[in-house]
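Hi F.,

I've been meaning to write this up properly since the lab meeting, where we talked about keeping a consistent format for the predictions we share between groups. The idea is simple: the sequence comes first, exactly as it goes in, then the structure tokens exactly as they come out, then a line or two of notes. No screenshots and no reformatting. I'm using this chain as the first example so we have something concrete to point to.
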Amino acid sequence: MSHALRVVAAEALKQHRRLFGQPLVLFSMLLWPLLTLAATYYTVLPVMESASAPQRWPVAADPSRLLAFLAAGALAYTFFFSLVQSAWHFSFERVSGTLEALFLSPASRMALVIGNGAAALTQNAWLFGCFAVAAATAADVLDVAHPGMYAVAAVALLVPAVAWGAFLNSLLIFSRDSAFLYTLLDDPLWFVAGVRLPLFALPVWIKAVGLAFPLTSSLVVLRGALLDRADLGDLAAPLGWLALLTVGLFAGASALLRLGEARVQRTGGLQVF
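Output, unedited:
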């Protein structure tokens, strides 16, 4: 375990040093999520101001609750999409030869992909996360059943995000078309997961597709725990499904790592394109 933790820490530090760049990057970490949130809010606001909107969706009757709903979606999406970006960057290591060197080392493969995802979370999502928590507290929009639900919301966001990142990193280790997957998981991800729209407004088949992504259930738990005063009993179903998805993603990542390494040992194609 101590060896795996050292590998995770080393990989996270390596990714941070390679991708962080200048301190000005901190500005972009907060700017682009805020711009996305503002654009979404002012796009849906005219529709929400119609007389019939609050009848179907009570959140629409209160601009502050609407903003909190969208902010929760932006926060969760920032966490999960930062892992998509980390996997995309991780695939570049095939070209540079770093990935080949990593696989020649005795380092735990699972620790490597978890460390890569951990670096993405710490450098891409923490600033907007702190801002969102501070803004929600200052605006007094949080409605929590008891303090323990803060921990439930945090775990429901962080653990599935790490599993999502490990799965994507494992997949892109031997995937040559990483740009395709990056594009596939950009706009479609927020659409099917209900990041900017309530799930009841989506067609049934889209909601069914969204259930395959952990972001969907994480958002249900996050919004329920922090905005709707839901307790563990109310969130038992999405938490159970989220736990199954998380275990499945870690198991899938482990299988992909074994299959991918066995394949490149046969073909010698870990670096060659």
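Notes:
The two ends are 35 Å apart (CA to CA).
The chain has a mean pLDDT of 78.

If this format works for you, I'll send the rest the same way.

G.
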